[in-house]
Amino acid sequence: MVVKTGGMSHAAARLKLAQTAISIQIRDLEREIGVSLFERHSRGVVPTKAGEVLYERYNELERFLERTLEDVRSAAGSPAPRPFVIGLVPSHMRLVGADVLIAAGTKLPATSLKLVEELSFALIAALERKEIDLAFAYDVEGRPGLVREAVIEDELLFVTARANAQDDSPISFADALQEELFFAGERGIVTLVRRMAQRLSLEPRIVSDMQSVPAIRARIAEGGASLLPYGSVADGVSRGIFAIRRIERPVPSRTLYMVSRREERSPLEDEVIGPFLKDVVRHICRASAPYAIIVDPRFDIAGTSS
């Protein structure tokens, strides 16, 4: 949870525990395995390389345990109802994850719902492995076994520390690229920015060796800048940590896809799951307003909502 939220205080609030208790658990774990799992910053923590490995392996073990329990119940002749599993990217989990689970209790009383949080490429891989039933993901290329449907167009915003913000007026794409920009790895947003810059014959100043979005958030808080969706920084904006400016000439944006497996019936055709998925899209769009728009009329926010 500390990795997902980017800070011990946020994790403590989510888990309803004292921050001291979480700090002690992490300290004891680091002593037991003999390595440092987090780098501490003034505004939060980010996982070290060792911490990232442990986090990834923990997720693998959790998924393995779930599959094992399902197999055990099945062998005993009393399989538990399989939940419908939806994959969300971290920014959307942070924005609407709790709301979606609460809505599921009302809208899906006879269907168990589970949410999985991963980056887009990991969600697509999990979908292909049949570990999840549906994903809301970005940067999805066409694949033979998958059906992708564009649902939301999401603006990228110029994000800086509030203390360093000069004003809140729009900034041109060219001017944004004059700043030293921090991105995670070589996938997703950084690829989009590089391609846009190349088309416009611009030379961006990009640092893309950060470990994760929480690491980027920490770097921005210390004085850096990035181009990110609203969901990645909404909490920091509301707390006065980050400042955002819209980008123009041109506006960088990316498409959120609803992705499912081709051999299965479209989830939208299900009389229970279909309306719920439309509500999920509306939740995401409303939480990202005014920086996102629905592009598929079937999900139009003017329709029936939760």
UniProtKB/TrEMBL annotation:
The keyword Signal does not apply. GO terms for molecular function: DNA binding; DNA-binding transcription factor activity. Gene3D superfamilies: Periplasmic binding protein-like II, Winged helix-like DNA-binding domain superfamily/Winged helix DNA-binding domain. It comes from the Bacteria. Keywords: Activator, DNA-binding, Transcription, Transcription regulation. InterPro entries: LysR_HTH_N (IPR000847), LysR_subst-bd (IPR005119), WH-like_DNA-bd_sf (IPR036388), WH_DNA-bd_sf (IPR036390). GO terms for biological process: regulation of DNA-templated transcription initiation. The keyword DNA-binding applies. Residues 1-48 form the HTH lysR-type domain. PANTHER family: NITROGEN ASSIMILATION REGULATORY PROTEIN NAC, TRANSCRIPTIONAL REGULATORY PROTEIN NAC-RELATED. Belongs to the LysR transcriptional regulatory family. This is LysR family transcriptional regulator.
